[in-house]
Amino acid sequence: MNTFNDLRKELAKEDPDLFIALEIVGKLMAARDRKGFSQRELSRLSGVPQKTISRIENGIDIPKIHTLLKLATVLGLEFSLVDKSTQEEQS
């Protein structure tokens, strides 16, 4: 029987883009829960339609960058890009 982590690793290998998108959405959902926001409240605060938030959280849509930034700002999250070559040199 596969564990959740086994499935995550398998997805990361098979479809890295989808894996990253799901990881980001998972972090957004966790932050929304921590803040105690409903989808409707997050929509009101971010300007992102509630229907869009629902579709993202249900895996129907993959969010665009500007949508992610709006949601992240309200949720107190930030994005950063990591230079893999620098990261590998430090290992």
Automatic annotation (TrEMBL):
InterPro entries per UniProt:
Cro/C1-type_HTH (IPR001387), Lambda_DNA-bd_dom_sf (IPR010982)
Q: Which residues form the HTH cro/C1-type domain?
A: 28-82
CDD domains cross-referenced by the UniProt entry: HTH_XRE
Which GO molecular function annotations are given, in alphabetical order? DNA binding
Instruction: Please report the name of this protein according to its UniProt entry.
Output: Helix-turn-helix transcriptional regulator
The protein's organism comes out as: Priestia aryabhattai
- Lineage, top ranks: Bacteria, Bacillati, Bacillota, Bacilli, Bacillales
